[in-house]
Structure formats: structure tokens, C-alpha cells
Write a structure and sequence with these properties.
The protein has 12 helices and 18 strands. Helix 3 links the parallel strand 4 and strand 5. It is an alpha/beta fold. About 7% of the residues have low confidence. It has a 5-stranded parallel β-sheet, sandwiched between helices. Helix content is 32%, strand content 19%.
């Protein structure tokens, strides 16, 4: 059969999508990017915050339309939203034929054929509003009492994958799940306890990826610096980085999703000494006010963050720092936001993302009053982002005339005669880019490395020429 898949959410979810595609192809199915031609449609959903849930619902309903007189015979919903709301989804959208949670990725082949499509239900919080494309939901069997067991699945080097990223970079999930209990986060419930892959499995996968032309490897998990600790392997991440640094064919190894309290000295030493490991740290800090951090159940403080960032810059010269913050958490005051702005000014982050707090059922913060109005949340986000933009623009102007090395990602979607590229200090999709002009785009391929001169800046982005 022809299988179409829509992947939503983060790169960790994307890896699950790639595994499902690989398993489907291994079973003899054909893959298609045209949903109108698919016999079976799969939507791999995200349910982290309200906007992600709404996008998932909208996409499911959009794909359900292909069952009305089209080629589609089966609609399968997978991923975090399926894990969180499986019985509600099936009741509200009867076009759905199978629901697979985050731990049921290997069952995709059975779900495609209709033979092993588990409809195990669990009780989930009330309040999810769904709209079906049919007037009335079909009746469902009563859900058993209690919750399902937490997911335990984790793929390995022998698991087939069909890659959805460009040929020159790929994600490797080095661990799954999370053991932290941050007040705003539902991920531990959706993904289960933290579990690391063995290093030899990761290195084998990295070698296979390098053999197929991958130049940049992005290591991902819920907390990448916790890698190996669950297995009693202290210092495992530093050892892994040194092993990956020796893989022929790789040029860049990038770490994403580090945690402020699990960054050890050996990881920083490995980053400083390994020429292929990008001098780039993605460190979601979430806030800088001690009062807010305490209510968020985050283990750090403003003072410990100050010391950590100073230590990182001292031990990894030239490192780029990316972080994310949440504004509008219950009880947040204008003084808390002022402290956050001061923190951003003090540390000159290269990349900052700011999210407005989403009041999610199933989290411990849901018991608190969501007492910051939506307009206030939006204004606070705009305030921090405006500050960050002004700080970055000033630094970008100072870079004009410098020479740097970039990786080419391909033609720019904005102009036929411009190439899009990235510095070592820029991750794909989430960071700004370098746009190459004054060159023949046909002379370069995605994955090529070039030495370029920076000739201009436009907001967060840089403009350069070979």
C-alpha cells in the first residue's frame, strides 16, 4: 500500500516518524508525499502545549478528509497526543482507525494492515475540545480503569529509518524519556522514564549515517547531558563525543537539549578538544527569577546559572549559547520579568526563544491559578524578544568583514540566486541563517563546506559571499 505520514512537533518526534517510515518500507509498503494518493495516512502528533495540540487536531481533520471518496482507507494517529488522549481522539474523530502511543512505534506495520492496531485506553484529563468531520461520534468500548504502563520503547542502530531531513544532516536520539518533574511539563508522562542507548549502538548508527553522506550529526534527547547516568555510566557523554569525533566522514557533531544541572566538566572538556564537536550549547533555562524557578520546580537558581554560563564560556572559548524561556508562569510578576531581561542582557546569548506559559492539564502547575492574562503573557514575550533582537543586531553588525566557515543547506526559498547556509554556531530550523550571494548556486551542493566573508547583516541573519 501507499503510505503517507505527517510529522509534527520536535526533532525527537521526527526520529519516531523516520522509524515508522523505515518499518513500513521494510514491510514492503510504498511511501508517498502526496496525501491524496495514500492508501494509509499517518499523523504523528505533538501535545506539548495548546498550540501544538490544536495543530495536531487540525492536521488529523485535514487528513480525515482524504477518506471521503479518495484513496485513503485507513487513518492512523500516533505520537504524544495519541499517548495523552487516545480514547478522546477515537470518540471525537471516528475516521481514525488506529491509535498508537509513543511506546508503540514498532506496531505501525500491524496498524497499517489493520491486524494489530491496539486500542488500549487510559483515563486522561478532561477539557480537550475536538471537532469531528462527521456529525456524531461512533460509540466506543468503556475505558478500563487506571493508566497504561509508561512507554519503554527506544530504537537502536539496527532499526530501519527513512530520513526526512536533507541528506547532509540527521538526528540521532541518544536517549528517551525524562526523570525530571518540572511543574509545566507533561513529557515524563508522555515519554516515560529516562533511558539511554548503549554507546556502541549510537556509534554504529553514526558510522552508517556518515557512509550515506551525512556531514552533520545532531544528538537529541529530553536531557542530553543526563546521558548514561541512568545506566550508572558517569562521564558517558564525554566518552561518546570523543568516539563520534573519530567517525570518518562526519564534519560536525551538535548537542541539543542540555540541562543546566547535569553539564559536567568532562563534557565541556570534550567539546573544547574535539574538532568535530560544535562549540554550541543548547541550554533551556526557562527563567532567571529564583521565585519563578522554584515554582516551576527547576533545580537551578539565578546565581547558579550565572556561574554555569561563566564557566562554559571560560572552558569552551568561542561557544555559542542558545536558551529558551517561559514567561507568564503562574505568579510571575513584572519584577520577575525585569530580572529575566537583566539576565538576557548580562549573558549575551547567541540565540533566545521565548514561549508563553501554556496551562496544561496533567502537570503539577495545573493546580495553580493561571493568573497571568494572555495579553500580558504576549507583551512580556515581545519585551524579552525585542531586547534579544537589539542585542543580536549590534553583535551581527560587528561581524561584517570577518571570514567564517559555513555548511550549505541549499537554495534559499526566498530568492533563486541565493544559497542558504549555516555557521557552526547555528542549528538547522531553529536558528538564524547565512545567506550567500554573489555566487553561482549551481556550483554548490547541500552539504558543501565553504569559507565565506560576511558582507552584511539583516536582523538575526548574516549575508556573505564565497
Amino acid at each position: 500500500m501507499k503510505i503517507g505520514l505527517v510529522s509534527l512537533g520536535c526533532p525527537k518526534n521526527l526520529v519516531d516518524s523516520e522509524v515508522m517510515l523505515g518499518l513500513a518500507a521494510q514491510a514492503g509498503h510504498e511511501l508517498t508525499q502526496d496525501p491524496s494518493a495514500a492508501d494509509v495516512l499517518v499523523v504523528n502528533t505533538c501535545a506539548f502545549i495548546d498550540s501544538a495540540k490544536q495543530e495536531s487536531i487540525d492536521t488529523i481533520l485535514e487528513m480525515a478528509e482524504h477518506k471521503k471518496g479518495g484513496a485513503c482507507r485507513r487513518l492512523i494517529v500516533t505520537g504524544c497526543m495519541a499517548e495523552r488522549y487516545r480514547d478522546e481522539l477515537k470518540k471525537a474523530i471516528p475516521e481514525i482507525d488506529a491509535v498508537l502511543g509513543t511506546g508503540e512505534v514498532p506496531q505501525i506495520v500491524g496498524a497499517i494492515s489493520g491486524g494489530a492496531a491496539p486500542l488500549a485506553f487510559h483515563r486522561s484529563p478532561e477539557g480537550l475540545a475536538l471537532q469531528s468531520s462527521q456529525p456524531a461520534p461512533c460509540p466506543e468500548p468503556a475505558a478500563p480503569t487506571g493508566r497504561r504502563e509508561a512507554p519503554t520503547y527506544l530504537y537502536d542502530a539496527s532499526t530501519p529509518r527513512i530520513f526526512a531531513t536533507p541528506r547532509h544532516y540527521a538526528y540521532i536520539k541518544i536517549a528517551e524519556g525524562c526523570d525530571y518533574k518540572c511543574a509545566f511539563c507533561i513529557i515524563p508522562t508522555l515519554r516515560g522514564a529516562y533511558r539511554s542507548r548503549p554507546a556502541d549502538s549510537i556509534v554504529r548508527e553514526a558510522r552508517a549515517l556518515a557512509d550515506r553522506g551525512v556531514k552533520e550529526l545532531l544528538l537529541i534527547s529530553q536531557d542530553t547531558t543526563f546521558y548514561g547516568i541512568d545506566r550508572g555510566e558517569r562521564g558517558a557523554l564525554g566518552r561518546l563525543l570523543r568516539q563520534l569525533n573519530a567517525v570518518d566522514g562526519l564534519e560536525w557533531v551538535r548537542l541539543l537539549y542540555l540541562y543546566p544541572t547535569t553539564i559536567d566538566e568532562d563534557t565541556l572538556a570534550a567539546m573544547a578538544e574535539c574538532d568535530k564537536v560544535c562549540k554550541y550549547i543548547d541550554l533551556p533555562l526557562q527563567h532567571a527569577s529564583n521565585d519563578v524557578l522554584k515554582r516551576m520546580k527547576r533545580p537551578g537558581t539565578r546565581q547558579s546559572y550565572d556561574r554555569l554560563l561563566t564557566r562554559i564560556r571560560a572552558q569552551v572559548p568561542g561557544v555559542a549559547l542558545r536558551t529558551t524561556f517561559i514567561v507568564g508562569f503562574p505568579g510571575e510578576t513584572e519584577a520577575d520579568v525585569a530580572e529575566l531581561r537583566g539576565f538576557v542582557s548580562d549573558h549575551a546569548f547567541d540565540h533566545v526563544g521565548v514561549f508563553t506559559y501554556s496551562h496544561e492539564e496533567g502537570t503539577s502547575a495545573f493546580t495553580l491559578d493561571d493568573d497571568v492574562p494572555a495579553k500580558t503573557k504576549a507583551a512580556r514575550r515581545a519585551s524579552v524578544m525585542s531586547l534579544q533582537k537589539s542585542l543580536v543586531e549590534e553583535r551581527q553588525q560587528a561581524r561584517i568583514g570577518g571570514r567564517v566557515r559555513v555548511i550549505v543547506d541549499g537554495p534559499s526559498s526566498e530568492h533563486d540566486l541565493v544559497l542558504k547556509a549555516r555557521l557552526e554556531t547555528q542549528a538547522p530550523d531553529i536558528d538564524a541563517s547565512v545567506f550567500l550571494s554573489e555566487c553561482d548556486p549551481s556550483a554548490y551542493r547541500a552539504g558543501d563546506f565553504l569559507d565565506v566573508e560576511i558582507v552584511g547583516a539583516n536582523g538575526y541573519d548574516l549575508i556573505a559571499r564565497p
